[in-house]
Amino acid sequence: MSTGPAPASDRVWTVPNLLSALRLVGVPVFLWLALGRHADGWAVIVLMLAGFSDYADGKIARRFNLTSRVGELLDPAADRLYILATLAALTARGIIPIWLAAVLVGRDLVLSGGLVALRRAGHGPPPVHFLGKAATLNLLYAFPGLLLSVGDNTLGHVMRPLAWAFTGWGAALYLWSGWLYLVEERRVLAR
């Protein structure tokens, strides 16, 4: 009889961790494509590959019991870096307003302060919950759509409302999940 998922191990060299590391390598590639070359199609492909590998690393880790402490840090770090890099590119190019980027980045900064407090108290980060994953997924759909919505062409006109819908949903869920993580951090610290 199973009592739940196995605890994370100290393994470093696992397929899920390799996928997360490859996602990290993709961040500067994405920035170069989106900002330097304005090769939006290729930048979208990098984002799509990052999204797929994010899904795959979690699925593989759970399916084959390859969860690790490194993976618990690496996977969300790669997610945050993609979100930050994409926000930077979209803001620098004037595709999204700076206030939206500031709100999303501010959420992560507030939570980072809580993570530092947790670590000082001898605790690890709170487990990732479904709402946080849903928020990230919505933003990972929104960002490529926003890149593809640039320009006065058919693709841009089709993608614009879809991309902004995912942006709105993703931002709302991102803030909501941030609130839930903050509540969890405070609960753990109060114990």
Describe the structure in brief:
The protein is an all-alpha fold and about 190 residues long. It has helices at about 15-35, 40-65, 70-90, 100-120, 130-150, 155-190.
Major beta sheet summary: none
Count of DSSP H/I helices = 6
Beta content comes to under 5%
CATH T-level fold name? Four Helix Bundle (Hemerythrin (Met), subunit A)
**Secondary structure: helix percent:** over 70%
Known CATH architecture:
Up-down Bundle
Number of domains: 1
Identify the CATH class: Mainly Alpha
Gross morphology is globular
Distance between the termini: 31 Å
Q: What's the pLDDT, averaged over the residues?
A: 89
Based on CA atoms alone, the radius of gyration comes out at 17 Å
Spans of 5+ residues with little confidence (pLDDT < 50)?
Answer: none
> How many β-strand stretches?
0
The H/E string reads: HHHHHH
Going by CATH, what is the homologous superfamily? Answer: CDP-alcohol phosphotransferase transmembrane (TM) domain
Helix/strand/pairing category: mainly alpha
Question: Can you tell me about this structure?
Answer:
With 191 residues, the protein is mostly helical. It has one domain: CDP-alcohol phosphotransferase transmembrane (TM) domain (Four Helix Bundle (Hemerythrin (Met), subunit A), Up-down Bundle). Helices cover 79% and strands 0% of the residues. It contains 6 helices and no strands. The chain has helices at 15-37, 40-63, 69-92, 98-120, 130-148, 154-190. The longest helix has 37 residues, at 154-190.
